[in-house]
Amino acid sequence: MAGVEQLRRREDVSLVQLEADIAAVRPGSSLASIALPDYVEHTEGVTRVGALSAEAVLRDYESAAKEIEAMGTELIDAARKCEALTAQVHDAIAFMRETAAGYREEGRKIFRRIEECALFTEDVRKTCEQVKRRMTQTAIIDSSKEEPETEELASERA
Hints:
Elements: H1 2-9, H2 15-25, H3 48-157
């Protein structure tokens, strides 16, 4: 109340002029014309200054509450975007897993081919060695048969 008393003591401030300025900003002269939110109503018998002060403070709180609700709406939108992004991430992870499984399968096929080629190459090498051995054994047998004949032919010719 000290503020109100100080205001009344100052001679350069006109309460009539102050009320006129407020009325000019806010149309309507009665308290009933003020549109207030449903959760409050003016108390009967409150002074005009008290009602206007309470209304001004309430409007500031209401404005802040609406901004908070707007932030909530933005947060909901951000959550929806996050959910959509999360779904995309899950799809990407599934694709990566499928791709990795495909690479593993391809690696397994190539592994088997290389081992099959190695086994085939080993079989070819063994077969070649066997053929080479047979050829040398046959050549030894044939040459042992041919040597006496060549000696006999040489002695006959002489």
